């Protein structure tokens, strides 16, 4: 008895099955039928070309976070160079960077909201 059957018997569920024609790595198998997940290469579809790629939600969020971090670091540097105590300078930099980043990061903020709206359909 192999491991998958023992685990399936123990937990009361059958092992997951791969679609016919796919190898364990997910690529089409040379021994089975062609993968049902691959587009046909007949060219009958008018949109047979590659689809335009849009950045994912993670990339958009990373860009937004990086911009906010750079703005905060710049404001903190200026505030500390002015000569404020580090704790007061940190607090002032948090407030000022929030105010400065609102107009400067509006495109990235809208991109994040649009990506969330497309993904979930619940914003706006």
Descriptive report:
The chain is mainly alpha-helical. Helices cover 56% and strands 0% of the residues. The protein has a domain at 57-120. It has four helices and no strands. α2 (57-82) crosses α3 (86-104) and α2 (57-82) packs antiparallel against α4 (106-120). The longest helix has 26 residues, at 57-82.
SSE topology sketch:
Layout: H1 3-11, H2 57-82, H3 86-104, H4 106-120
Helix pairs in contact: 2-3, 2-4
Q: What percent of the residues sit in helical stretches (DSSP H or I)?
A: 55-70%
Number of helices: 4
Q: What structural category do the secondary elements indicate? A: mainly alpha
Distance between the termini: 55 Å
Q: In terms of per-residue confidence, which ranges show pLDDT below 50 for 5 or more consecutive residues? A: none
From the alpha carbons, calculate the radius of gyration and give it in angstroms.
Answer: 26 Å
Brief synopsis:
This protein is mainly alpha-helical and 124 residues long. It has 4 helices and no strands. It is elongated, with a radius of gyration of 26 Å.
Keywords:
single chain, 124 residues, mainly alpha
């Amino acid at each position: 008895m192999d491991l998958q059957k023992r685990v399936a018997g123990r937990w009361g569920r059958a092992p997951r099955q791969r679609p016919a024609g796919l190898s364990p790595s997910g690529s089409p198998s040379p021994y089975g039928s062609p993968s049902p997940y691959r587009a046909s290469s007949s060219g009958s579809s008018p949109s047979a070309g590659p689809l335009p790629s849009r950045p994912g939600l993670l990339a958009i969020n990373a860009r937004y976070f990086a911009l906010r971090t750079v703005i905060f670091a710049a404001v903190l540097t200026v505030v500390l160079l002015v000569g404020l105590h580090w704790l007061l300078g940190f607090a002032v930099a948090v407030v000022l960077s929030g105010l400065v980043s609102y107009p400067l990061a509006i495109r990235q903020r809208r991109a994040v909201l649009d990506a969330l709206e497309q993904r979930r359909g619940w914003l706006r």
